């Protein structure tokens, strides 16, 4: 049965009865709203996809907790739940609750002290090709980035946090996030 024609309130009631199809319809119906609500926010150590995921968690909670006895429509209730979940995630990130995860030290082969660990069991030709590919990628990527993007990338590759990079470059953390997003897009378009 096609449930796309039913009201949000009816679908929420069906979800309360265990209807998984109604759940899918509401998730699809409100995905755009979640993206719009997440757009103006910024989360330290995360990206837009993290905020959208948090918004989807808020939507899921709204679907589970909505009661038709409330005077608010499902859309109003869901919007508030989505906003609350996004803001809770931002507050949690600001408390540095997960700072050990956000300030990890990368163990990739670019660390000279660890480089030999990753070469164990590999043929010398493979090691050389991997190093040449990495050097080429670094040089070609850095040549296509703006001065700010290069500076942000250098600090980011050193494992510095958004806040620390912002302080060192005398810009705000949002500018750091925007620069890293542009870098990711540029790198993705070259691959």
For the structure shown, list the relevant keywords:
single chain, 191 residues, mainly alpha, 10 helices, elongated
Number of helices: 10
The helix content, as a percent range, equals 55-70%
Unreliable spans are 113-118
Structural class: mainly alpha
How large, in whole angstroms, is the Cα Rg?
Answer: 23 Å
**Topology as H/E string?**
HHHHHHHHHH
Q: Based on Cα principal axes, name the global outline.
A: elongated
What can be said about the biggest beta sheet? none
SSE diagram, text form:
Layout: H1 8-16, H2 20-38, H3 48-65, H4 74-94, H5 99-102, H6 115-118, H7 124-144, H8 147-157, H9 162-169, H10 173-190
Helix pairs in contact: 1-2, 2-3, 2-4, 3-4, 8-9, 8-10, 9-10
Describe what you observe in this structure.
With 191 residues, the chain is mainly alpha-helical. Helices cover 70% and strands 0% of the residues. It has ten helices and no strands. Helix 3 crosses helix 4 (74-94) and helix 8 packs across helix 9. The longest helix has 21 residues, at 74-94. It is elongated. 19% of the residues are buried. Mean pLDDT is 79; it is low at 113-118.
């Amino acid at each position: 049965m096609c449930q796309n024609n039913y009201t949000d309130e009816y679908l929420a009631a069906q979800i309360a009865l265990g209807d998984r199809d109604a759940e899918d319809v509401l998730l699809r119906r409100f995905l755009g709203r979640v993206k719009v609500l997440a757009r103006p926010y910024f989360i330290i150590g995360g990206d837009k996809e993290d905020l959208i995921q948090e918004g989807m968690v808020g939507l899921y909670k709204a679907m589970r907790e909505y009661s038709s006895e409330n005077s608010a429509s499902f859309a109003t209730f869901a919007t508030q739940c989505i906003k609350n979940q996004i803001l809770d995630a931002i507050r949690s990130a600001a408390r540095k609750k997960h700072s050990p995860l956000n300030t990890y030290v990368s163990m990739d082969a670019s660390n000279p002290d660890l480089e030999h660990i990753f070469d164990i069991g590999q043929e010398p030709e493979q090691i050389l090709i991997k190093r040449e590919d990495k050097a080429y990628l670094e040089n070609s990527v850095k040549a296509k980035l703006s001065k700010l993007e290069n500076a942000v990338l250098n600090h980011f590759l050193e494992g510095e946090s958004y806040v620390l990079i912002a302080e060192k470059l005398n810009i705000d953390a949002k500018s750091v996030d925007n620069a890293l997003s542009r870098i990711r897009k540029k790198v993705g378009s070259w691959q």
